[in-house]
Amino acid sequence: xxxxxxxxxxxxxxxxxxxxxxxxxxxxxxxxxxxxxxxxxxxxxxxxxxxxxxxxxxxxxxxxxxxxxxxxxxxxxxxxxxxxxxxxxxxxxxxxxxxxxxxxxxxxxxxxxxxxxxxxxxxxxxxxxxxxxxxxxxxxxxxxxxxxxxxxxxxxxxxxxxxxxxxxxxxxxxxxxxxxxxxxxxxxxxxxx
Length: 193
Description:
By secondary structure, the chain is α/β, with parallel strands linked by helices. The chain contains six helices and seven strands, in the order βαβββαββαβααα. Strands 2-3-4-1-5-7-6 form a seven-stranded mixed beta sheet, sandwiched between helices. A hairpin with a 3-residue loop joins strand 2 and strand 3 (47-53). The longest helix has 24 residues, at 157-180. It is globular and about 45 Å long.
């Protein structure tokens, strides 16, 4: 069987959440699908999904967005992994990260969930935290705003000026993890700009 990777973009369903910070993972999936001319279709694993390739003759990528709310992303993720025969070491989860400044991308495999309930639920459903993460920085709110409200707010006007570049960079990071491996991708994306 070809080398298959499952790329899961986290977010919440529906128009209310489309442009919020919490949905940046799904924005990255949309970017990856757009680059390949793919349309995500309803999948029996309670997700939207599309099959594509990194490039002709290279790894197959299953691009997916769970139809569930963020905190229960594990069921669709595990169902997709089972359907496509993908082990956790070939799963990449793309998600927002409060503890990383806006416009910054960090990559890692395994470790804790850092309070991110979507990552927590996927680790529980897969039976391991040993999957790759593309962590897209959204920063923390200033002042006394509750972080739970912050992640559900749309990006600010200032953030929207560079949001397209951030989403594109995060899509590049996913492709680098799949094509070059995590270490090479980290060396590229963790370097100071």
